[in-house]
Fold each of these.
Amino acid sequence: MAEIGRIIESDACVAEGAAWLAGAEPRFATAMDLTGPLPLRLRPDGFAQLLSAIVSQQVSVASARAIWAKLETAGMTHPQAILATDDEALRGLGLSRQKAAYARALAEAGIDFDALRHAPTPEVVRTLVAVKGIGIWTAEIYAMFSLGRADVFAPGDLALQEAARLLFDLPERPKERTLREMAEAWSPWRSVAARVLWAYYHVAKQREGIT
């Protein structure tokens, strides 16, 4: 496990990381006084989870759910099924031409998802972003929540950038590279730091009247 670091498996793991962050950075303690306990947010891993991420790109939550329900009903959540189906049929289930191509690329990639569970996080990210339609944000979120990696961050996330601006009283929203550098100080619990920032973002926006 040395190569992949800690794995978050329970609320107790999140609480351990939260306590470490509160001790290392007082502003995290301030944020957590407002947010309360942090969510576990673990998800399954595997092909279907990544296909769902592709489906969700640039559409509303409601639309993504509707399309995913059609794919599930049609049995199109497995690589073999995607490969045995033409793009026209996939588009008939609600996928755009581009997303149908992405789904096929994911199916053709032949990713060994069992092996990813034991691969170092940089290797996980490299493997996933090699697939057309999967960017670094999706790969880092997969490592964070589907593989439970405790020390991965997603600095390209706009909510994390805005939360960091608010919590650390920055003059402007930090860019991806700047936030990635900031997050190095939160190792080995960067995934928990992300949970703090997301929770803080929601609290801050609720105060502003934004849901």
Amino acid sequence: MKLSNLLLILIFFSCSQKNVHIKNARKFISQWNYDRALIEILKYREDKDSEVQYLLGVCYLGKNEYDQAKEHFKNSLNIDTFFRDSILNLYTNSAKRAMKISDLEKALQFYKALADLLPDYQQADNLFLVANLNFQQGDYYNALLGYLRAYQIDSVSEMARRSMGNFLKSLIECDSLQAARRIAIKEYKRAKTTDNLLMLGEINYLIGKEYFDKKEYDSALVYFNEMAASQEPKSLLDDVYFYIAEIFYAGENYSDALEYYKKVLRLNPYQKGELAQKSQLRIKEIKEKR
């Protein structure tokens, strides 16, 4: 037998054996027997074979060895993208299962791995989910980044609208109050709901308070007056009336200051609480000045 023929036979036999091992690995994976599946294909881990790398990734993902899973999925995708959708489904389904048992940290881990593996994949729903998970964990910076990417793709779906409150709160937590206000105004114009008005009022209050603390009273008054006109949120009205009164008092406009201090007291008929007590003292001071 010629040497070339012998080599061909050996190559064919080797390929045939490899295909058998791959077939066996798939069978064991379908039975969730990942250790046995690994025995079948681990010897081929250095091969530039997208299917082998994909199956290794599946095994390690099933064994909760996430770094190794991600490494082999990346290898598979670098060779070709045939298993791209399968990898996408694996991570998406894993994240959804984690969310069903309220394991938000693990769900977030799956979505982040998916974003690393498929950076060109921009399904808005997944981006909103990642952002919402970051928000729930108090990671407002990464939540904000996620919302910004998601809204670039989709700003009209039900998921986008449900996420708007968290998006605005993330902007607030990241000290982007003016950006939050612009978006809140746009949302209120789109739908004049109580929730949208409350959110806009809360943002106006925070901006007004910032200006007040810096003694930029004219600017503060713009935002406090807007809240006084809308009468929302009602839970902050006594604060707003008190700060408006303080601005007038600082400007020696005692008549208007007195009017707003009295509004604070009308909202606190039992005259309990710090603002009511401060307002009483101010009223007394004004009367003594006259």
Amino acid sequence: MSDSQTQVILHNYPQSPVAEKIRVAVGIKNLNWFSVQIPRILPKPLLVKLTGGYRRTPVMQIGSDIYCDSHCIITELERRFPDPTFYPTADAGLIKCLSRWTDTYLFDLATQIVLGSAIDDLPPDFAADRGRLYFGDEWEEGMRAANNNLPHLSSQMRGPLSWINDQLADGRKFLLGSAPGAIDAQFFCIVWFLRGRWNQGPVFLSQYPELNRWEQNIIEVGHGSSSELQAEEAIKIAANHKPIEIETSFSEDKAHDLEDLKIGSEISIIPDVDGGEIPVTGKLLYASSTKISLHKYDKEIGDSHIHFPRTGYSIQKL
């Protein structure tokens, strides 16, 4: 397999906390990768051409295989580049369950704090874009409520950060011991977000000395080695490659899949929260309890496979 067929391309922008999670993840793997900088808000025409409509950040591209959602990206990075592992202890299943909490409740809490605290300073177009994405249809009321509720929201963040501080109190370098793992990247992006985007973040975080020490250890891990790539070049790379072969089947007993999906059927998939997003449609290639893969055809790109995690996404048969 040629280098171009295994080259990691991350579609991201510098200020994104979820992109920072994946930048740390590729740093843990010490990978060489290409960085395509995407717009912070819609429209994102070249990104959605690749994804079929998915607009969130980041997206990973390898050839004409497109991986949406950080959970899916981390899973694929571990499959393709197993050494060093994201799971350096025997607790991989438990850590993956914990990541659902960090990526939903804890990230949502951080978002309410950051956006709520900045409501009067955000550019109107950015406020409207992120407000609709994270606070729903009545986003203005939601952001104003978060602003009014900042003392409570910050109190709810103190518990989790105290637990992390306690976890690190024995002097360990990373959350699971001497080696960094995916859970370090998943927690770090939240701390990075609070420190960099909340005006009270640095003072708030100063109460956690062990967490501060751990932050520096993560920063020293770095982001691997990246090179800039234009979005148009990424489109050409996708057009010049075929997606990896995938067994077009269910990976487990279909009787347990109550959504009654059928391989080859047209489906749509969308995050299962009300963010006002566009569903991605295509032919179902693969389904398991943890992953969904679609086939998509675009006249400029040709055939591509678009991959999502099963958890956190709603599927509709068309």
